[in-house]
């Protein structure tokens, strides 16, 4: 069969689930036995997501090959079980950067390089490359933002041009919101009608409309959308609010979304969908009643009067996967690290939780509060899991309070500290001097060798692993002997660079810090070994 392309666009407002919709279609197609991949196009002038504030943009997801991407790629990976690459992520900045570089290299043979058609052509080239390098039958392309935004026009133009060039091989899905105003008490279709009309103005007729709402769409609403948006009622797919995003592929499958897509793309002999393992996973998640109370101590989730959990979405999902694996229902509480800086009496509330996680982050704000939390967990035997910065702060806490290195700190936090137990990586010094921040950290998958007499080996059941990284600072090897003699076990190292990757305390229910980000490789059906071991220890309390 010829390669097929499915564009997923959004209407009315952002944050309504384009990414989950894309991931769910990807899941359905792969469950039918097709080879499929997905890519995200973000309308930002940023070259990648690495320099964006997580409070504004959400988590920065990292691939094996070191691409810093939008968080939606995490859902693509979790739903499909695939490891994606830099080819699966694209931004406005990256497109313009590439076109300008090609122009400078005379790759356009002296032509006048214009926004149209050269920018859309570069987008199309990237889309086709993502499909060819994975030898996929289907390429799903999620366009960030909503239709009608100025930033999206060139990507929609690329979609329009592809429909013309490859008739019968391109399909467009519009994910739109149908509000139910409290004072009216009726689901309103007009915003979706307007979104469809705006997409028409860009030269694209949606083939399928996914109706996001607080409740399922009834037949009257489907008929109305059908009439005013020029599609069949069967092509209006209901997507009501649900407890777990992992139910979405099952809901879509019940509405025969996969069959509708294949029919519209002229694939007559549709393969059967096998979602049995996924159904068992969702059923187990619903049936688990015992709760695992986990506290996540961070600083990136407070935005005005609201809590933005997207900053740590992969950590949340990894906790969910591990809890489901062990037969528990996660109960996550968000705790601001700054609340523990001035009043240490508040630390006692940590004993109310089964386990505490300190995730990654940058900068000095809230750091001392996190160190106080780590000390409390260490001394009071509360299961603790430190990720990236969380691991570095665990080393600092241990150096200060056990090894008597009173001024121990990180050069990221305190440049003139007496004992820099966390130091800048050697190759990062020049980068920081030149203020070259974008895409220059230690990024992507690196090997780690694990000691056999450790909790980490018990979790992984092997001595060599590979995990994804995103950091500039590391444990200072000058202090390794001191902290190990003090009782902090270096459980894992990168032999090639002699870098500390994992630290543990043996006489503790679970006290593990990792320099990498295991949350990025957690998968729903299996969970991540370290998160599973953490939840196992936490729920024993």
3D architecture notes:
This protein is an alpha/beta fold. It has two domains: 4-280, Rossmann fold; 289-421 and 475-491 and 502-539, Class I glutamine amidotransferase (GATase) domain (Rossmann fold), CATH 3.40.50.880. Helices cover 36% and strands 22% of the residues. The chain contains 19 helices and 23 strands. The strands form five sheets. Strands 13-10-14-15-23-22-21-18-19 form a nine-stranded mixed beta sheet, with helices on both faces. A seven-stranded parallel beta sheet has the order 5-2-6-1-7-8-9, with helices on both faces. It has a three-stranded mixed beta sheet with strand order 16-17-20, covered by helices on one side. It is globular and about 75 Å long.
Mean pLDDT, as a whole number? 94
Gap between N and C termini, in Å?
Answer: 55 Å
The CATH C-level name of the largest domain is Alpha Beta
The total strand number stands at 23
- Uncertain spans, ≥5 residues at pLDDT below 50? none
What is the structural class?
alpha/beta
CATH topology of the largest domain: Rossmann fold
Rg: 25 Å
Number of helices: 19
How much of the polypeptide forms β-strand, as a percent range?
15-25%
Question: What count of domains describes the coordinates?
Answer: 2
Silhouette: globular
Helix content: 25-40%
Features:
Rossmann fold; 541 residues; 2 domains; 19 helices; 9-stranded mixed beta sheet; alpha/beta
Layout of helices and strands:
Layout: E1 4-10, H1 18-31, E2 36-42, H2 54-57, E3 61-62, E4 68-69, H3 72-80, E5 89-91, H4 92-104, H5 115-134, E6 138-143, H6 153-165, E7 170-177, H7 190-201, E8 208-213, H8 219-229, E9 236-240, H9 248-254, H10 257-264, H11 276-287, E10 291-298, E11 302-303, E12 306-307, H12 313-325, E13 329-336, H13 339-342, E14 355-358, H14 367-379, E15 384-387, H15 389-401, E16 408-410, E17 419-424, H16 428-433, E18 442-450, H17 455-460, E19 464-471, E20 473-475, H18 480-485, E21 489-494, E22 499-504, E23 511-514, H19 529-539
Parallel strand pairs: 1-6, 1-7, 2-5, 2-6, 7-8, 8-9, 10-13, 10-14, 14-15, 15-23, 16-17
Antiparallel strand pairs: 3-4, 11-12, 17-20, 18-19, 18-21, 21-22, 22-23
């Amino acid at each position: 069969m010829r390669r097929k392309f499915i564009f997923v666009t959004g209407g009315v407002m952002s944050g309504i689930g384009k990414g989950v919709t894309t991931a769910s279609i990807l899941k359905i197609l792969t469950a039918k036995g097709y080879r499929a991949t997905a890519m995200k196009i973000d309308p930002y002038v940023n070259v990648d997501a690495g320099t964006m504030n997580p409070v504004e943009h959400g988590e920065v997801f990292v691939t094996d090959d070191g691409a810093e991407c939008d968080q939606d790629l995490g859902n693509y990976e979790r739903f499909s079980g695939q490891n994606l690459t830099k080819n699966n992520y694209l931004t406005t900045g990256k497109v313009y950067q590439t076109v300008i570089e090609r122009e400078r290299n005379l790759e356009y043979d002296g032509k006048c390089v214009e926004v149209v058609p050269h920018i859309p052509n570069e987008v199309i080239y990237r889309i086709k490359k993502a499909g060819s390098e994975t030898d996929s039958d289907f390429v799903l392309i999620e366009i960030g933002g909503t239709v009608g935004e100025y930033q999206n026009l060139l990507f929609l133009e690329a979609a329009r041009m592809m429909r013309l060039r490859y008739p019968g091989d391109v399909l467009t899905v519009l994910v739109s919101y149908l509000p139910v105003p409290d004072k009216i008490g009726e689901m309103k279709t007009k915003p979706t009608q307007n979104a469809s009309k705006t997409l028409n103005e860009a030269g694209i007729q949606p083939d399928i409309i996914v109706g996001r709402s607080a409740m399922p769409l009834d037949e009257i609403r489907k008929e109305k959308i059908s009439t005013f948006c020029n599609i069949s009622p069967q092509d209006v797919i209901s997507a009501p609010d649900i407890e777990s995003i992992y139910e979405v592929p099952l809901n879509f499958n019940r509405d025969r979304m996969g069959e509708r897509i294949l029919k519209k793309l002229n694939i007559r002999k549709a393969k059967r969908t096998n979602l049995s393992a996924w159904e068992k996973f969702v059923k187990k998640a619903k049936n688990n009643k015992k709760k695992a109370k986990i506290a996540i101590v961070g600083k990136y989730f407070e935005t005005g009067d609201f809590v933005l959990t997207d900053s740590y979405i992969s950590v949340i999902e990894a906790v969910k996967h591990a809890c489901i694996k062990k037969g528990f229902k996660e109960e996550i509480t968000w705790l601001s690290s700054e609340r523990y800086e001035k009043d240490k009496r508040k630390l006692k509330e940590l004993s109310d939780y089964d386990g505490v996680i300190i995730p990654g982050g940058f900068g000095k704000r809230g750091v001392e509060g996190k160190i106080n939390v780590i000390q409390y967990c260490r001394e009071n035997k509360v299961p603790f899991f430190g990720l990236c910065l969380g691991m570095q702060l665990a080393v600092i806490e241990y150096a200060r309070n056990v090894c008597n290195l009173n001024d121990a700190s990180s050069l990221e936090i305190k440049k003139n500290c007496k004992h820099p137990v966390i130091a800048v990586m050697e190759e990062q010094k020049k980068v920081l001097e030149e203020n070259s921040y974008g895409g220059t950290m230690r990024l992507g998958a690196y090997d780690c060798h694990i000691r056999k007499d450790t909790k980490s080996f018990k979790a992984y059941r092997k001595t060599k692993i590979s995990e994804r990284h995103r950091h500039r600072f590391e444990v200072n090897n000058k202090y390794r002997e001191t902290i190990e003699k003090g009782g902090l076990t270096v459980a894992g190292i990168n032999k090639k660079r002699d870098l500390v990757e994992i630290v543990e305390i043996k006489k503790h229910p679970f006290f593990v810090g990792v320099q990498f980000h295991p949350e990025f490789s957690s998968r729903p059906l299996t969970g991540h070994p370290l998160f599973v071991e953490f939840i196992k220890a936490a729920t024993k309390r």
